[in-house]
Amino acid sequence: MLKTEAIAKHFGGLEVLSDVNLRVEAGEIVGLLGPNGSGKTTLLNILSGFLRPSAGRIRYDGREIGGLAPEAIARLGIRRTFQLPRMPEKMSCAELLLTAVDQPAGTRLFAWPGSARAEARSARKRAFEMLEHLELTRVAHQPASGISGGQQKLLALGAAILGGARLLLLDEPTAGVNPTLRLRLVETLQEIRRQGVTLVVVEHDMGFIGRLCDRCVVLDRGVLIADCKPEHLMENERVVEAYLGKRETRPAASETLLRTAEA
Amino acid sequence: MSDFIVHVLIIAATYGIAAASLNLQIGVAGLMNFGQIAFFGIGGYAVAMAASAGLPPIAGIPLGVLLAAGAGAAIGRLGRNLKAEYWAIATLGIAEIFRIVLINEGWATGGAGGIGGELSLFPGLKEPAATWAMLGVALAGLVLAWALARGLTERQFGRILRLMREQPDLAVSFGHDIVRYKVKAMAVAAAIAAFGGALATSYIAYISPGDLVSFGTFMLWTMVIIGGVGNNRGAVLGAFVVQFIFVGALFLKDGLGLPSELAGALRMLIVGVLLLAFLMIRPEGLLPERLRKIDAED
């Protein structure tokens, strides 16, 4: 479904990504891991068109999308969420979801009232069904920026689905989300996958990755160092090194941590 | 006295049209236009130049509206390359360039002296019927402009503009081409402002580059801020409040026995103080923007 070939990105002299070859098959949930500053969010920004790669190609369903504008990529069905939810203050959750639903008559400057009305009615119905599905009906009329961080992440997810996501790129969906909501998020994301959406998830929470992902790819200092099933992550010496340092220089505490994680 | 009130109502209504247009830009789309008075001027000059060319002044209205829409779309397009703050500075510059061109192309624009004469939309009517007819047209125009701005604000079009104003990256991630929305919003808003300018010029029967100095934009901003940024009714209310205070200052001059050269400065001062007071005490304006209530069913 999505394939990158030798993606590189540098900001001036700083090389953030180099020679990244990533494949995502339709229907998969892929975890994208790596220590802070390893280039995960940069890669997500490149895949969603918010940044242009310095080199390399991105193919989506056989089509080159490397130079496209972010809104054009979004309209092809590649939708993303942000690490820190960016929600408007002067818009309710229900209205925010409406902005994500395609309404061609409503966005024209001049449209026959009848056509726009039917379209708006169906959009409202879909938005409220989504709110109910995400258990957000209670906050439907509250400002989108005023609900909890976890609820904002759910809302962003709902908007992406309503917008017609086929490939969903999630940037740290569990950051700032309480443990109960994290479990629900795993269920919600698995259900989204069952509906035919492919997912790439940037994440730090290993437990979450283990429960959710079919496959993990790990970035370290801009280079892909591993591509394996989540249960095999800890067996990969390069991954362990990336997170905890080399075995000979690793502090004793890290070894304890590692043994706990393996157990 | 009633003549005076009718006069102020007509002027307030035409400014109200331009304020509704400015609210569509700054309040709804978040486009900080510091050159709004130029769109107002395009409408005004279209009426005046149509009359100088021997056409009926009313023919200048559609011409001005179309020209302004084109200019608005072109300025909106600049947003592709410029960040919001730089775009705002560019609008100020463009309005000044427009004014300087008007001063220097005297063969067509009358130069610094401007264009005056018989610009009435109802050349057949005598006074006071003509003034009353003008009041009717100005108020009807204001209702039309307000309804158009409100309709656009509350539909999906305006919803996306409002999202773009607050969270542009989120709007882009939803697949909305924000440059296209900026261009469309600017085109419509400029057309509305030109309509207001055309009515004002036709009523006053005179326009000159002196009417298009940046103080005009400042007045329109004050109207929108006092009325309530993001609220269409607020922009119209703000236009009436500011216009009545602006002319009311003239009475203050008489009351205090001030020389007339001070009166002009005094009323600018009063508008400035009023703006500052609102920004400090009630920045959301008289009629703040509220959350829209969306219901599942009609």
Q: What's the total count of β strands of chain A?
A: 11
Cross-sheet strand order for the largest sheet of chain A = 7-8-9-4-10-11
Chain oligomer state: heterodimer
Provide a count of the helices of chain B. 12
Span between termini of chain A:
35 Å
Helix share of residues of chain A? Answer: 25-40%
What is the residue-averaged pLDDT of chain A? 90
Protein structure class of chain A: alpha/beta
Poorly predicted tracts of residues of chain B: none
Helix and strand succession of chain A? Answer: EEEEHEEHEHHHHEHEHEEHH
Write down the overall mean pLDDT of chain B.
94
Which CATH architecture of the largest domain in chain A is right? 3-Layer(aba) Sandwich
Rg calc of chain B: 19 Å
Main sheet record of chain B: 2 strands, antiparallel
Largest binding interface between chains: A-B, 46 and 32 residues
Number-wise, the strands of chain B total 2
- How much of the residues of chain B is beta strand, in percent? under 5%
> Could you name the CATH homologous superfamily of the largest domain in chain A?
P-loop containing nucleotide triphosphate hydrolases
Q: How much helical structure, as a percent, in the residues of chain B? A: over 70%
The gross shape of chain A turns out to be globular
Verbal overview:
The complex is a heterodimer of chains A (263) and B (298). Chain A is of the alpha/beta class and 263 residues long. Chain A has helices spanning 40-47, 70-75, 93-100, 104-107, 113-133, 149-162, 179-194, 206-212, 237-244, 252-262, and strands spanning 2-11, 14-20, 23-24, 29-33, 55-60, 63-64, 78-80, 167-171, 198-202, 215-220, 223-228. The longest helix of chain A is centred in the middle third of the chain and has 21 residues, at 113-133. Chain A is globular, with a radius of gyration of 20 Å. With 298 residues, chain B is an all-alpha fold. Chain B has one domain (2-211).
